[in-house]
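Annual report, structural modelling task.

Input specification for the iron/sulfur cluster complex:
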Amino acid sequence: MQQPPTSADGSPPQSRAAARRSRALPLRPQDEVECRRCHVHCDKVVYPAACLERSCPFVYAYEDHGHTFMGCMQKVYTVEIDIDLLRRAEASRVGFGGFKAKREPLPMCKVEVDKCFEHRVGKLGCINPEFFEVPRGEPTFKVFARGDLGRR
Ligand code: SF4
Ligand code: SF4
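The model returned the following structure:
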């Protein structure tokens, strides 16, 4: 019986095509939230403590069961955070940390690139350096009013 064609490493042609697509450089690498074009694997990480420090107008908050929770209206991250826990973690040595961005961060976000397996970098180094160009600067609008979230 004839076997379906495979690549030298045994993978089917379809998965080679998918791998080629995932390695193709995008038009705007700055807008991506993750890069898998080499074995390093990089992700954009946003820090929610900075949303409050920077008085971002896209923070929302609500009370539930005696706790105040916050989230991001733009869905740069999609989880909701207990503000008391966030402040307690921020007061500690390690801080609260960040979440993997779910969509491209905005200029007011505190964002960094996290390299997952830095030791796996190849001879060519990074082949997608524009991925590291995270948005910096001021939003193009001003906040006129804000509440003191979580300060009771
Ligand atoms: S847009 Fe950025 S700074 Fe504003 S709430 Fe969302 S993650 Fe935070
Ligand atoms: S090192 Fe460069 S090419 Fe490799 S995953 Fe990170 S951004 Fe992509």
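Confidence is low (pLDDT under 50) at residues 1-12.
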